[in-house]
Design brief:
Blueprint lengths: L1 E7 L15 H8 L4 E5 L7 H7 L9 E5 L2 H5 L2 H5 L5 H29 L2 E5 L10 H20 L4 E2 L21 H17 L9 E2 L1
Parallel strand pairs: 1-2, 1-3, 3-4, 4-5, 5-6
Helix pairs in contact: 1-7, 2-5, 5-6
C-alpha cells in the first residue's frame, strides 16, 4: 500500500524513553497492514534544520512523510523565558529573534519536503509536558503558530499533538519531554488515521485528531 517515513526529533524517535516497551515506529507498524512499510529516520535531538539532512537518506519507494520538528528549536529558547531580564521588552525581543530564526529554518525544511512531492504530514509540538510553566507554554504557542501556518499554506494535513498527548501518562518517566509508550500509542493511532483517512489530493488542510 505504501511506505511511511518518520522524520524529525525524539517525539517520533522515542525508543529510548519507553522502558523496554514499544516505540512509535513499532506501534505504527503493528497498526498498519502488512502491505505498508515504516522507516524511522527521525533522530533524538534533531532540530528543524536537521530534517533536511534526514531527507538525504529517504528510501526511493517512500510514499508518505510524517514530520515532527520544532520541539528542540523551542527548547533552545527556554533560557530566554527563565532568565530574569530588566524589562519585558528585552525578553520579548530575544524571543522574537528565536521565533524568527525558527520560521526561517522551518520554512527551509518545508521547501525541501515539497521538492520530494510526496504525501506529507506535519505535527505540532505538544504542550502538556509535566512541569511546563505557563510562560513556557505561551512561548511554545509562537513556535506552533509557525507550524500551523506552513501546514495551511501548503495544504498539508496536521496532527495537533497538543490534542493527542494531554495526560501525564503520555509522557516518559525517563524524560518528561518525551512520549511514553502510552503517548506513543496515541501518536501512532493519529498517524494511522491521517495515512488511511485523509485524501492527499484534497485542496484543503485538515487537522487531526
Amino acid at each position: 500500500m505504501g511506505h511511511v517515513v518518520l522524520l524529525g526529533d525524539s517525539i517520533l524517535d522515542n525508543a529510548a524513553y519507553v522502558n523496554g516497551g514499544d516505540s512509535i515506529a513499532s506501534q505504527l507498524r503493528a497498526r498498519l497492514s502488512r502491505e505498508w512499510q515504516v522507516t524511522l529516520l527521525a533522530q533524538d535531538g534533531a532540530v528543524a534544520e536537521g530534517v533536511v539532512r534526514q531527507l538525504l537518506r529517504l528510501p526511493e519507494d517512500a510514499t508518505h512523510l510524517v514530520i515532527s520538528a520544532g520541539g528542540n528549536d523551542a527548547l533552545e529558547s527556554t533560557p530566554i523565558i527563565n532568565s530574569p531580564t530588566p524589562d519585558s521588552e528585552s525578553c520579548l525581543t530575544e524571543l522574537l529573534e528565536a521565533v524568527t530564526e525558527f520560521s526561517r529554518s522551518y520554512s527551509a525544511m518545508v521547501t525541501a519536503l515539497r521538492q520530494r512531492q510526496l504525501h506529507t504530514v506535519l505535527c505540532t509540538i505538544y504542550d502538556s509536558v509535566p512541569g511546563l510553566r505557563p510562560l513556557e507554554c505561551m512561548a511554545l504557542s509562537l513556535f506552533n503558530d509557525i507550524i500551523v501556518r506552513q501546514a495551511t499554506t501548503f495544504r498539508y494535513p496536521l496532527i495537533d499533538l497538543r490534542r493527542v498527548c494531554t495526560e501525564t501518562k503520555d509522557y516518559s518517566s525517563v524524560s518528561p519531554i518525551e512520549p511514553s509508550e502510552v503517548g506513543g500509542g496515541k501518536i501512532a493511532r493519529a498517524i494511522q488515521s491521517v495515512i488511511i483517512g485523509y485524501d492527499f489530493n484534497a485542496s484543503y488542510s485538515a487537522v487531526f485528531p
